Amino acid sequence: QERPPRAFGVGKCRVSGPFMLREVFELNYTQIIALPEGPVDHYGRYWLNDDEVTVISNQVQGMDDRRYPTGKVRFETRLGEDTETAYSTAVADFPGLWTTNHRGDGIPSILLRLTNGDKDKFSRDYPNGVQTTPSIEAFYRAYDWRDEAQDPEDNTTWTYSANPVVWLVNVLWRRFGADWDERFAPSLDILTAEADVCDEEVELAAGGTEPRYECGFFFLATNAAADVIAIILASMDGWFGQRSDGAYIIRAGHYIEPTVIFGDKEIYDYEFNPGPTPDAARNYLTISFTDPDAAYSKVETTPWADETDIALRGEEKRQDFYPQAVQSNGQVRRLGKPALHRLLTPHGTFRTPLSARRGMGERFVGLNISECDDLNGVVVELGEYTIDLASASIVWTYQLADAAIYSWNPETEEGDGPSGADRPTPEVLDDPDIDDVTPFYEGTGGGTGVRLSVEATGPDRADLTWAVRWRVDGATSWVEAEASDIDPLSPVVLETGFVTADETIQVQVAYRTGSGVLSDWSPTIPF
Predict the structure, then answer these.
(1) Are 182 and 239 in contact (CB under 8 A)?
(2) Quick one: which of 286, 275, 287 has its CA closest to 312?
(3) Mean of the pLDDT values across residues 165-186?
(4) What is the average pLDDT value for the chain, to the nearest integer?
(5) Where residue 98 falls among pLDDT bands split at 50, 70, 90?
(6) What is the Cα–Cα distance from 402 to 341, expressed in whole angstroms?
């Protein structure tokens, strides 16, 4: 493989990654996979390809349909501590190739070892062959300054967090090099209050509560900082700005009564657009989110529609809404409400002198423009701004604000949730049984001798291919051959070739499905 870009984990997510080792030793195929960087606090669920599996004491527990038999699949993990420990399994299997110095410092990782056995059962044990890809649910640690027990210089004191404000600070600081004393320390009181907003418990329609905003995803080192920031902000209807003193301001999605007001004396000129153009208007959001209950796949949930605007325009004008770091139906619906509002709300720009830079770092400000009724005595939400040094002015973008977009009634607004069906449960095939064995003397293939007629029972399926095997009692090897059912009615009737006469014989049968899955051999019948 080509050298892959580094990856970084945020919150809780399902992760896998590139190979650090991929090798065979005797009957064992071993792979060690690097996960997005952490550190990781702990792991949760496990998958082999799309199959969620149970792991106990590093052993995958076999599934009901006999995939990944217990004892044949080993699953080990490392959290990605600053000083890690090499996998002793790989050290023992590959001396010299993988040593105790292959620790993987700072790299969370997975070791997966598959043990092969009977080649006839390989396709059943490992339906994807050696392309068995492990993945895992990882819970990443972050530095949360609100916890006095945490030390920013010692990540072993950090704990799992899914708080978007906490993570945006961590990403800007740890990944993109923002200076803590310059960018965060001066505004830490604001950042603390906004992180607390994310942690507020919100009632769910089905009962119970969940934090108002959480996030979970991973990104690559090749992703632009602006894109990563946008993903985290989208998970909390967030706002990011910089104050005039250089401090970063992060706001979670909630209404704040403005303390900064701009009036006629400070506003040189302005532009007011009553709403989007007909071509740009969108009144219907198709909403999706990453659902942990669906193995972290993207699922669609109840859309959000502005029925008044739809009736006015005479049509649904749709837009997709997928904040990829969101993992909750309730949360994504709470985010859809303000998102649709902003697509239809009046907006524009206004220009002030540089002395009005007190608005920097404010999400909501008041406007008192006496000559415009639409902008007189209103609250607006600020967007980007541009400093024009030539005219010594600041040009601000805005949208009209509405505190009602953050009100929430779970009973009427949470929606029905994802409508997709669960994956079908893999069929568990019954073991075959032998009902009767009858020896008979008959010629075949130019010879004569003793043969066996075996009556067997198996699943009532038309795609089965049968096999029968026998051996003299006490022998170590079997005489095995495929056999056709000579009786179209139940039970199955199979005939063997010649067997040893005047000896005690052991007999077993098995079947293979049309998809190639081999059953276990039936209990042995002596006669």
Answers:
(1) no
(2) 275
(3) 97
(4) 93
(5) very high
(6) 9
Residue for token pair 């220009």:
351
Helix (H) or strand (E) holding 23: strand 19-25
Q: What is the mean pLDDT of residues 453-459?
A: 91
φ/ψ (deg, to 5) at 400: -60, 135
What CA–CA distances, in Å, run from 192 to 165, 174, 183, 251?
9, 18, 14, 10
Nearest CA among 439, 422, 444, 455 for reference residue 500? 439
Tokens 């004191």 -> residue: 157
pTM for the structure as a whole: 0.89
Write out 131-179 in H/E/C secondary structure: CCCEEEEEEEEECCCCCCCCECCEHHHCEECCCHHHHHHHHHHHHCCCC
- Measured between alpha carbons, how far is 351 from 388 in angstroms, rounded to an integer? 10
Cα–Cα distance, 475 to 478 (Å, whole number) = 8
What is the C-alpha to C-alpha distance for residues 393 and 267, in angstroms, rounded to an integer?
A: 10
Strand order in 525-526's β-sheet? 479-483, 465-472, 505-512, 525-526
Structure tokens at 164: 């978007």
Q: Are 287 and 321 in contact (CB under 8 A)?
A: yes
Q: In what order do the strands lie in the sheet with 55-56?
A: 19-25, 28-34, 109-115, 73-78, 59-60, 55-56
pLDDT at 129: 82
Nearest C-alpha neighbor of 130 from the set 114, 144, 143 = 114
CA angle 197, 200, 202 (to 5 degrees): 130
3-state secondary structure 186-247: HHHHHHHHHHHHHHCEEECCCCCEEECCCCEEEEECCCCHHHHHHHHHHCCCCEEEECCCCC
In a 3-state reduction of DSSP, which class is residue 333? helix
What contacts 441, CB < 8 A, 6 or more positions away?
Answer: 448, 449, 450, 451
Give the three-class secondary structure for 412: helix
Beta bridge partners of 258: none
**Residue 339: strand, helix, or coil:** helix
Residue 443 neighbours by CB under 8 Å, 6+ apart: 449
d(CA 356, CA 220): 38
